[in-house]
Amino acid sequence: MMEQDQNKQNELQNDFMIEKIKERPINKRKLIRRTVITAVMAVVFGTVACLTFLLMEPVISNKLHPEEEPDPIVFPEDQEEMAPEEMLSENLVPESSAGTENPVDPTQDILSQLVLDRNNYKQMYTDMSRYVKELNHCMVTVTGVSSNVDWFNNVEESRIKSYGVVIANNGKELLILADYAPLRKAESLSLSFVYLENTVSGNFSIPAVLKGQDKATGLAVLAIDLENIPEQMMNEETGIKIAPLGISGVRTIIGTPVVALGSPMGTGGSIGYGMVSAVSVQGQQSDAYYKFLQTDIYGSQNAGGILFNLQGQVLGVITSQKTGTDMKNMVTAIGISEIKKSIEKMSNETPMAYLGINGTDVTEEANRDLGVPYGAFVREVDMGSPSMRAGIQRGDVLVGFGEVVIKDYSDYITALMDATVGSTVQLKVMRAAMGEYKEMDMEVTLGER
User: Fold this and answer.
1) I want to staple 366 with a disulfide (CB 3.0 to 4.6 A). Which of 132, 151, 372, 382 is the partner?
2) Domains in the chain, start-ordered, CATH in brackets?
3) Is residue 88 very low, low, confident or very high in pLDDT (cuts 50, 70, 90)?
4) pTM
């Protein structure tokens, strides 16, 4: 009996030992929900992390490595220069003629001792060729690329060239002044340096960006990053050079010898020698005042490039705009003096103030015979411009711009260039009424050109 009980107990133990533990059933809905929630949270976390990095990275980088602002570009104001013959006359007075009633002209005395022959002629042109090679270190070729689709959906690229000159280095970029009119439809810009174009490395070009443009003159300032320029090209003696801006507004500018570089003959790399033969004021342009320097260089009606004097200074930017004379093929340039402020604004990416007055100077005859006061005579007022909203009318004479006394249209442009966009200015205007001019005060908020 005891043996039977023992056997039953052993059987029960064996059954207990071989019993399987039943696994808990899987809730598939719950598992899928948790998986989806985990994935969504991961995406949200990753998105927040990316946005935080993108927003904070510039701040942290600026804190650790603050980016230097480009140096502001400021061009010196023009000062009246003395002509070489005047300096010679003042400084060279022969002892034999001192104290006499009719002193001998030292210029004529020196010239009478010179004997010129064909060797001098050859030497002169050899020297001019050497001078042009030096100037080419300042010159650049600007290439604008645009694309069009033909009838067969083939993409065609067109390339248009213009010419410019290096005018400044702001510590981050080289700045180039160029005629932008041929390039205004370009989708991308690149620059190559003229002094390299006849060498093995002449195909080297650098991407350029537009810093600012002046639609009144058609000129623009372009920029190339200094980091994109090879170090050897920045060598002061053999590399790129900066051309100083000269003075074109002096009374002795007519007769000044000049060199035209770029494409004065309509072909890239062409050269023209001559002199300034005439000066004329620009045509109908609002808030713009510049002069055309006409030369005796016979070139192309589509001429472009830069006009230099013999001191390596920029006198003007060659333009295809015409002066209204019948000398259609004479190379003409926009004088540099009157547009220096505009170039300065473009170089610093500073917007130009806009008032909307098309004016001219009051002549001595108009002042004497008609009693028109000296100032900026208003010929036209742009429709919807700040000047029209202020109440300025055709025939008014602007004589005051803030604290500045306006004596002619050039004074008005200078004052406007010194003003800032959005500023409020007090204007003093003379208006004809009952046979005389009466003073009026107006307030105007300047717009952006």
Assistant:
1) 372
2) 139-148+155-234 (2.40.10.10), 257-347 (2.40.10.10), 353-448 (2.30.42.10)
3) very low
4) 0.76
Tell me the three-class secondary structure of the chain, residue by residue.
CHHHHHHHHHHHHHHHHCCCCCCCCCCHHHHHHHHHHHHHHHHHHHHHHHHHHHHHHHHHHHHHCCCCCCCCCCCCCCCCCCCHHHHHHHHCCCHHHCCCCCCCCHHHHHHCCCCCCHHHHHHHHHHHHHHHHHHCCCEEEEEEEEEEECCCCCEEEEEEEEEEEEEEECCCEEEEEEECHHHCCCCEEEEEEHHHCCCCCCCCCEEEEEEEEECCCCEEEEEEEHHHCCHHHHCCCCCCCCCCECCCCCCCCCCCEEEEEEECCCCCCEEEEEEEEEEEECCCCCCCCCEEEEEEEECCCCCEEEEECCCCCEEEEEECCCCCCCCCCEEEEEECHHHHHHHHHHHCCCCCEECCEEEEECCHHHHHHHCCCCCEEEEEECCCCHHHHHCCCCCCEEEEECCEECCCHHHHHHHHHHCCCCCEEEEEEEEEECCEEEEEEEEEECEEC
Mean pLDDT of 370-382: 94
Kindly tell me if the per-residue pLDDT of 10 is higher than 90: no
- Write the pLDDT tens digit of every residue in 239-251: 999 999 999 988 8
Give the model's pLDDT for residue 124.
87
Residue 89's pLDDT is: 47
Least confident span in 59-73, 370-384, 402-416:
59-73
